[in-house]
Amino acid sequence: xxxxxxxxxGMYVSNLSFGASSLGGVFHxxxxxxSMEAVFAAVENGINFIDVSPxxxxxxAETVLGKALKEIPRNKYYLSTKVGxxxxxxxxxxxxxxxxxxxxxxxxxxxxxxxxxxxxxxxxIEFADLHQVIHETLPALxxxxxxxxxxxxxxxxxxxxxxxxxxxxxxxxxVESILNFCHYSLNDEKLxxxxxxxxxxxxxxxxASPLSMGLLSQRGVPEWHPAPEALxxxxxxxxxxxxxxxxxxxxxxxxxxxxxxxxxxTLFSSxxxxxxxxxxxxxxxxxxxxxxxxxxxxxxxxxxxSWANS
Length: 310
Prior knowledge:
alpha/beta; TIM Barrel; 8-stranded parallel barrel; 18% strand
């Protein structure tokens, strides 16, 4: 396992890290005991960064993770959670007020059985008024940072443009890390275009979803996946190509996404301890660079054909 610093936070984290969304049954129903075993497997085998949110499973992921963390020494992991997105009785809720953010941190600590949070994030800022994030949400979190309740402050979003905009318009040192997903994977390298900017601001970069929410998997995408049909088909061709080489695309995807030292860590999620161990083993081997090139060429060619025919 390799370890990289998140920006200038002093947190040196494993280049592959554990996302706890699966513990909330986000993708499919998860067994609580097996979910806890997945957390133990991750920490016992070198993963030291865990990310969660009250939104995942509408507080279930934090609750299950908290039960596991009660049995793990606090110095064995860095813990990240979020504010802004929630849920109640099956209904999604968004609230980016400073008051709600502050209350949310304390409630998360109760569910997680900890007395401080290493990294607190404003969750999916695309759903927020970005001005409110800058002038209300982030200042509330900075106040908690000043009190030592949280150690570091970050923001998350799918849209890299939003992340950059908030950083540009916030006071220097407010945002210490960004978390972005699906933009540093075999089929999408958009994050590369923003590395220089975030590094120039001493902001750490966290990547998530190396399998592009199922695009780069033998299982395939869930029904709700937002990818256009052309991209789904292109990735399916890449999956088949890897199968013909007896090299699972999941393995290649994990290796590719964890192989860039400019990205502090890449999050994956699983409630299955066997999958956790498998992904850790994948990350400890270098990627087959020839196969990376072949897969990217297959996806690119298929997308160009689709664009030409549209």
